[in-house]
Design brief:
The protein is α+β, with helices and mostly antiparallel strands and about 160 residues long. Helices cover about 35% and strands about 40% of the residues. Strands 2-1-6-5-4-3 form a 6-stranded mixed beta sheet. The two termini are about 35 Å apart.
């Protein structure tokens, strides 16, 4: 009984300090934010994309992590990525699966797999990524993107 009370103490302290539990409304808000982000990327709407991200923003580049210190740097990163895709005939993308893992009341991870299509409708590529997300001033924002081999999407070890 005492051991159980001690184990629950950090949870109770968080609730008493005003910390809310991660819930269904957070999941829905993250899904909506991520949908806006994907649409902004496809349409090259960098104003809307900026509303979905915050700095510092962590990206994986060939396995190495890089921190982007401003939203301007994040926008520049996405402009370059989108430009490279454009040269390959990119038109749009479809999210094929998504999982959200709560970390704290104000942070989570999105694990998404996607399929990118060319202008002629054929598949350009399949991919996956992990996105750390944080609640900032009441709104959920992407804090980074780490590419993932789509063969490992959803695997837990």
């Amino acid at each position: 009984m005492i051991l159980r009370a001690l184990l629950l103490l950090p949870i109770a302290a968080g609730v008493l300090a005003g910390q809310q539990a991660f819930g269904e409304s957070d999941k829905i808000a993250i899904e909506k934010m991520y949908s806006r982000y994907v649409t902004a990327f496809i349409k090259q709407d960098y104003t809307a994309l900026r509303d979905s991200v915050q700095a510092p923003f962590v990206v994986s580049a060939g396995g190495a992590l890089q921190s982007l210190g401003s939203v301007d740097a994040v926008e520049d990163h996405y402009r370059k990525q989108r430009g490279a895709l454009e040269k390959r005939g990119y038109n749009d993308a479809k999210i094929t699966a998504m999982r959200i893992t709560a970390l704290t009341p104000d942070s989570a991870l999105i694990n998404a797999s996607y399929r990118r299509f060319k202008k002629d409708g054929s598949v350009l590529e399949e991919g996956a990524a992990v996105y750390p997300v944080c609640r900032s001033s009441g709104a959920w924002k992407l804090c980074g993107v780490m590419g993932q081999d789509p063969r490992h999407f959803g695997k837990m070890y």
